[in-house]
Amino acid sequence: MPRSKPCFVLVGLCVALSLSACGRKPPVATAPITLADDTRVASAPDNLQAALPNAVPGGELELPPADLDASSGNQVASNVVAADVASNAIATDVPGIDQVASDTAASAAEAKRIADEAAKAEAVKREAEAKRKADEEAAAAAKKAAEEAEKRKAEQQAAMTPRYSRVIGEGGLYGAQALCISSGSIYVVDNARTGLLGPFAAIRKYDLATGEYAKLSFENLGLLGVKNLPVGIKAVKVENTKVITTDGTTQWTFDAGANLLKSEPGSFAPPAKLTLPGKTDSIVIKDGVLQRVEADGDLVVTFGQKEVNKATALALDEAGNLYVCDAGPKARVVVFTAPKE
């Protein structure tokens, strides 16, 4: 092969390498390379392959066709330059890629923010629901505790309250002003009786256990049998089997058979309150109403409003049962059982 113009061999090699780099597989040369001076070079591919065995993958070099002239080479070179320009344009488009990456990151951050807010809202909702349930449970527990406390209070008050039992003297009394208990009998002051000469007072005796009238009335039988025990008797008591009564200025004393023994100036008052047996609490009358009070006067319970219209006097038997004079329209003695506590 002539060596006058080896530069053309190098140009062919560069074109082949450029085509291979652009992904275009040039056809295998089947004709001699045409040089600028139309000199024919025989077996150029073999010499090139021998000179550059590792120039292309596989160790094989494919040369352009024999009719490839300078203008074709220039076109290939132009294509290579265009490819390089496009590659450089892609490489220099980094700001656009960065914007896409930035937008993607922003979208991810926004999605995370929305997810975090949704999780926070859900947590707040769960917390509010838990608080609501806790408040409802606490309110229900408080209500139940209050109801139980009220129930216990009611039970305690019931245990501390004398309970209605029975009545004595209803239908046989016209008024019930005072009373006392002695030896299984109850003596009741009746200020509203009426005789031939007008109203008078009497002390009526009843059996304590049965409530039966003992057919004995303590009255002041004056001259010619006139009953002159005055109305307005305020108290009665029994001392040494003698029945004594008073109107506040004079007192009359009777024997056990209802005979008047004497009358003389004197006065005594019924007890203002009665202390319950074995307790410090007392039963009192306040404005005609029955009350149980503590030793210092604090109210424990009010009772008997349904059974007693107007309480005027009290008495207790040995068992602690309470006897109350009711001066209302139904004159009688109302009996209450002893309180449990």
Structure, described:
This protein has helices at 7-21, 44-51, 70-91, 94-160, and strands at 33-34, 40-41, 163-168, 179-182, 185-195, 198-207, 213-218, 235-239, 242-246, 250-254, 260-265, 273-275, 282-286, 289-293, 299-303, 311-316, 322-326, 332-337. It is α+β, with helices and mostly antiparallel strands and 341 residues long. The radius of gyration is 66 Å and the shape is rod-shaped. Mean pLDDT is 80; it is low at 1-9, 21-25, 27-45 and 51-61.
How are the SSEs ordered, and which strands pair?
Layout: H1 7-21, E1 33-34, E2 40-41, H2 44-51, H3 70-91, H4 94-160, E3 163-168, E4 179-182, E5 185-195, E6 198-207, E7 213-218, E8 235-239, E9 242-246, E10 250-254, E11 260-265, E12 273-275, E13 282-286, E14 289-293, E15 299-303, E16 311-316, E17 322-326, E18 332-337
Antiparallel strand pairs: 1-2, 3-18, 4-5, 5-6, 6-7, 8-9, 9-10, 10-11, 12-13, 13-14, 14-15, 16-17, 17-18
Helix pairs in contact: 1-3
What's this model, at a glance?
This protein is α+β, with helices and mostly antiparallel strands and 341 residues long. The chain is 33% helix and 28% strand. It is rod-shaped, with a radius of gyration of 66 Å.
